[in-house]
Amino acid sequence: MINYKFIYNFALVILFPFVVIYFTYISIKNNDLNFIKNRLGLVTKLNNQNNICVHCASLGEVNGATGLIKEIGKNHALFVSTNTLSGMKRIKELFPKLDVVYFPLDYKFIVSSWLKLTKVKSVIIYETEIWLNFYKVCNKYNIKLCIVNARLQKNLHKTKFVKRIYLEALEYCDLILCKSEYEKEKYNQLGIKGKDLITIGNLKYAYKPDQNIKSNNDLKNINNYFLMVSTHDPDEINFLPTIKWLMLKGTLTVIAPRHIKRSKEISNLFKSHNISSNLLSEINGTENKLIDKNNILIIDSFGDLPQFYSNAKYIYVGGGFSVRGVQNIIEPSVFGKPIIIGPNIDNFYDEVNSLKKQSGITIIEENENISDQENIKKTFTEFYNLDDDLLIEMGQTAKTHSLKYEKIVEKYSTILQERKIVN
Known about the structure:
This protein is an alpha/beta fold. The protein contains 17 helices and 14 strands. Strand 13, helix 14 and strand 14 (362-363) form a beta-alpha-beta unit. The two termini are 42 Å apart.
């Protein structure tokens, strides 16, 4: 019989020197020694006596967990952990008074050191961070462990090695709160069932636009544009004919890639097709912030996307044409704008289908008879010609649907207290 746990830990031993070298390089490159120190279990200079850790893997998870962190933080001392530099930066922006540390590498001796130095009593994992040794050591030290807004990759239960490792780790998890029934069924297929697996709802419904957010009126002559958010390869190339068509119609396209480091790559892509583009960072550095509607505008800076939702005419949420799947549809829905997505809806399956039933979202369905580019342009041409009143109605339907879940954070907080995850 194959000992999957042994293979997992043996692979960690083999990789250890390479991992240390890589993380040391990242620390030096970004002038952040805490990155390597925390990852190796060394945590110093905590300002508060914390007993709860909320873990957010990266920037997206930080944004999704913001409401829950605020709610728990009202009555409990907590700190936030993350895996990435962007996550660290975002947490410090949102919660300057909280302690923030990097999550430890999944080695027992490192995890033990990290847990002892942070003195944590409960760990709340946001979404999908399942680490065998971390979960096991938490159980050894009687540290409560809960996954919130839980989700799993599609067909993960069919990957034998990962399935066995996840099953082993999840045995040490006290509570799993799923974001939808669809995600709960994935856990069932993995082999996880019982009273410790509960559907609550998607925490991302707690998103509220920042009332102090600056208006994009600083950017002159920009409104009624086509906004593409959280784009993944191949979104830009797939939409190329549609973007050219919109330019002929006098409509500007604004693109916010899921990973900002792709901005230059996207700019070069359009350049190779004789389309000019502007980077928002370059425009913000000039006095005359006039946008050329014959150019594409690329948002290449953190925190600037929300200011572009309000004046957009319609919004495409990226990822639906990639294996990764569609990105967060909830944030744009709060602004009451018509939303368009690609066919892979796995990440937001229940949320998309609920909106679809109410005609609150448009899915570009797969069409085997034509290319994705042709299919997108065909669908978008039809969408473009819809009456403005109907577009407004579609946007308001999405917004109204999101508002139904405005108490979602309170629901999570209540059950976390009832189950003694948060004391």
